[in-house]
């Protein structure tokens, strides 16, 4: 099962290395890790994605909490979360395929960030399935480079009326 751990740590040099080392020593692979500023300027939030069972998740939470610079750890794998990933994808283009590729990009709401004579770079943001789907559709044209941020996630708010609300709409329900 995919595991998403949300970890608040002190914003200090070496903390990321200690967290990654802990996973390595336990033989757990980190599929994705993102780190950025948290609500408090002295803290950072890590979002770690790995695969494992409940026992592995409990062990990782317990081991992470033993690290000096770890403030909080939450396994949010079973929570309702908002998760996003950003990817930059460079795809080969020709005069003949440029329009075809543009039509593929439309439903993904991507931003074209660079265009040359032989390639185009796009930025896509969404959940991992969306990013993977776009990469799959562009692969036959020749994906030249991919740079991905990894998953970042927050637990959804508890406002039940908003749970099913489509946030792409411009007005909030009343």
Automatic annotation (TrEMBL):
<comment type="pathway">
    <text>Amino-acid biosynthesis; L-isoleucine biosynthesis; L-isoleucine from 2-oxobutanoate: step 1/4.</text>
</comment>
<keyword id="KW-0028">Amino-acid biosynthesis</keyword>
<feature type="domain" description="ACT">
    <location>
        <begin position="4"/>
        <end position="78"/>
    </location>
</feature>
<dbReference type="InterPro" id="IPR039557">
    <property type="entry name" value="AHAS_ACT"/>
</dbReference>
<dbReference type="InterPro" id="IPR054480">
    <property type="entry name" value="AHAS_small-like_ACT"/>
</dbReference>
<comment type="similarity">
    <text>Belongs to the acetolactate synthase small subunit family.</text>
</comment>
<keyword id="KW-0808">Transferase</keyword>
<dbReference type="Pfam" id="PF10369">
    <property type="entry name" value="ALS_ss_C"/>
</dbReference>
<comment type="subunit">
    <text>Dimer of large and small chains.</text>
</comment>
<keyword id="KW-0100">Branched-chain amino acid biosynthesis</keyword>
<dbReference type="InterPro" id="IPR002912">
    <property type="entry name" value="ACT_dom"/>
</dbReference>
<comment type="function">
    <text>Catalyzes the conversion of 2 pyruvate molecules into acetolactate in the first common step of the biosynthetic pathway of the branched-amino acids such as leucine, isoleucine, and valine.</text>
</comment>
<protein>
    <recommendedName>
        <fullName>Acetolactate synthase small subunit</fullName>
        <ecNumber>2.2.1.6</ecNumber>
    </recommendedName>
</protein>
<dbReference type="GO" id="GO:1990610">
    <property type="term" value="F:acetolactate synthase regulator activity"/>
</dbReference>
<dbReference type="GO" id="GO:0005829">
    <property type="term" value="C:cytosol"/>
</dbReference>
<dbReference type="GO" id="GO:0009097">
    <property type="term" value="P:isoleucine biosynthetic process"/>
</dbReference>
<dbReference type="InterPro" id="IPR004789">
    <property type="entry name" value="Acetalactate_synth_ssu"/>
</dbReference>
<dbReference type="InterPro" id="IPR045865">
    <property type="entry name" value="ACT-like_dom_sf"/>
</dbReference>
<comment type="pathway">
    <text>Amino-acid biosynthesis; L-valine biosynthesis; L-valine from pyruvate: step 1/4.</text>
</comment>
<dbReference type="GO" id="GO:0003984">
    <property type="term" value="F:acetolactate synthase activity"/>
</dbReference>
<dbReference type="InterPro" id="IPR027271">
    <property type="entry name" value="Acetolactate_synth/TF_NikR_C"/>
</dbReference>
<dbReference type="Pfam" id="PF22629">
    <property type="entry name" value="ACT_AHAS_ss"/>
</dbReference>
<dbReference type="GO" id="GO:0009099">
    <property type="term" value="P:L-valine biosynthetic process"/>
</dbReference>
<dbReference type="InterPro" id="IPR019455">
    <property type="entry name" value="Acetolactate_synth_ssu_C"/>
</dbReference>
């Amino acid at each position: 099962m995919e595991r998403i751990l949300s970890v608040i740590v002190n914003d200090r040099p070496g903390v990321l290395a200690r967290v990654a080392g802990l996973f390595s020593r336990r033989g757990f692979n980190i599929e994705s890790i993102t780190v950025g500023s948290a609500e408090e300027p002295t803290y950072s939030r890590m979002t770690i994605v790995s695969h494992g069972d409940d026992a592995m998740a409990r062990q990782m939470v317990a081991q992470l909490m033993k690290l000096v610079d770890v403030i909080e750890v939450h396994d949010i794998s079973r929570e309702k979360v908002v998760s996003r990933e950003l990817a930059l994808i460079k795809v080969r283009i020709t005069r003949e395929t440029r329009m075809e590729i543009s039509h593929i990009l439309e439903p993904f709401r991507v931003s074209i960030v660079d265009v040359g004579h032989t390639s185009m770079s796009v930025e896509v943001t969404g959940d991992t399935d969306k990013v993977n789907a776009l990469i799959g559709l562009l692969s036959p044209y020749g994906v030249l480079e991919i740079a991905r941020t990894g998953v970042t996630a927050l637990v959804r708010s508890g406002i039940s009326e908003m749970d099913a609300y489509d946030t792409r709409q411009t007005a909030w329900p009343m």
